[in-house]
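tool=predict chain=A
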Amino acid sequence: KRAAANRRYALQAIAGAALLALFVGLFAWKGAAGKEETFDHAVNQRIAHMQSADTERYAIQPVEPFYGSGSVWLKRGSGEMLIVVNGLYSLKEKDYQVWLQDEDQLSSAGFMLVQGTQGRSYYYGFGAKKAKRIVVSMEPKGGSLRPTGPEAVLVDIEKE
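tool=predict ok
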């Protein structure tokens, strides 16, 4: 009798723990989805903000043998730049690093965040005002001081 009662309590405890884990997992999954929706909303707001008369827009053409297309929005007056590239894939051992090129000098503009197959990067700083070219390259995790990896995206943004 006692063994049967212990088994019943053990099964109830296991069922309760499984139910609790399922409940917590659903909220964690909903939280992750909420973060992605928040990120998408922030990017869409930034794109809307960048749509003004003083914004230059450049189309990103695929670079063989790599990736997809997209757009660059550039406000030279404020030094803001937004890049959205479709057709990328997440890299486990590497990061996509954004570079601004002015004549012969390259400066890092940070990293591109890749979710699914879309990469996005927002930059605010002095380098965007004088940039003539944007390069996105695959670099070791954490980035590098100079581009070392293959170039995934190239965009010429000469002033008119």
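The chain has a mean pLDDT of 77. The longest helix spans residues 2-50.
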